[in-house]
Design brief:
The protein is mainly alpha-helical and 249 residues long. It has one domain (32-243). Helices cover 48% and strands 10% of the residues. The protein is built from nine helices and five strands, in the order E-E-H-E-E-E-H-H-H-H-H-H-H-H. The strands form two sheets. Strands 3-5-4 form a three-stranded mixed sheet. It has a two-stranded antiparallel sheet with strand order 1-2. Strand 1 (10-15) and strand 2 form a beta hairpin. Helix 4 packs across helix 5 (144-160). The longest helix has 18 residues, at 35-52. The protein is globular and about 40 Å long. This is DUF1570 domain-containing protein.
Length: 249
């Protein structure tokens, strides 16, 4: 989920024995990329990386930016598209939640920058992991826990391949998960974490009230994200792609 703005350059010049400050001409930074541009870039690089692993993909998922007001990024099996929403369209409660999240972040991002970093960028290849699970036919054979953990591994492995700040997976994961470090485990004492998640995932996905809600679902995702980070050397991108060899669709 990064914001760019106008930049003023201040030039200090020494003239006649005293210091004067001059304001250089304000220069506009390159325009901020649109959500569609960000999503398309990630989709294209993901497809390219999977193809380089030898994958023969039956189709490329589309990139769709919805006008919804809720926090969202997901891959839809129905329309074969990865869906995003934009910060500017989020309702007040959603923006408030991200503002609190950004305040706990480690990268110093604005609330909008945090949203773009998390939901328009970092989580996107996780969702494309579900695309791989779809074309392989494996999604329906996996438990919710296993499907989500594998998607986190796929997303992590993709970012490891990227250069520069995008490839700084340690820093990016720390930025995202720090907010949830203080959230207590939602799993009742004596219950297995995976069993609890699997038992309540269907109701949560259907939007029904239950013990799994958006906040503690985020807790589970953060735990899986940190697991994928720790185990990233064991699950390189091509290994995960080969596990999801496409079938005819």
């Amino acid at each position: 989920m990064r914001c760019e703005a106008l930049q003023l350059a201040f030039i200090a010049a020494v003239t006649g024995g005293f210091l004067t400050a001059q304001i250089a001409t304000a220069r506009e930074m390159p325009p901020q990329k649109s959500v569609e541009q960000i999503g398309t870039s990630i989709r294209d690089r993901f497809i390219q990386a999977a193809s380089a692993c030898g994958a023969r993909l039956p189709f490329e998922p589309r990139v769709t930016v919805d006008a919804g007001s809720a926090i969202d990024v997901h891959y839809s099996f129905d329309d074969r598209a990865i869906h995003f929403t934009e910060w500017k369209n989020l309702d007040q409660d959603s923006q408030g939640a991200i503002t609190a999240w950004a305040a706990k972040g480690t990268l110093g991002l604005s609330p909008e920058g945090m949203y773009r970093e998390m939901f328009n960028s970092f989580i996107a290849p996780h969702e494309l992991g579900h695309y791989l699970q779809q074309i392989s036919g494996r999604y329906g054979t996996l438990t919710p826990w296993d499907a989500e953990l594998e998607a986190n591994r796929i997303g992590m492995a993709f970012w490891v391949l990227q250069r520069g700040a995008e490839g700084n997976v340690e820093g990016r994961v720390a930025n995202i998960t720090r907010f949830l470090d203080g959230v207590p485990t939602p799993v009742p004492a004596g219950q297995d974490v995976k069993a609890f998640f699997n038992a309540n995932y269907a109701a949560f996905s259907a939007g029904k009230d239950g013990p799994l809600n958006p906040m503690n679902y985020s807790w589970f995702q953060a735990e899986m994200m940190k697991t994928a980070l720790r185990e990233r050397q064991q699950y390189p991108f091509c290994k995960l792609v080969s596990l999801n060899k496409a079938k005819a669709i």
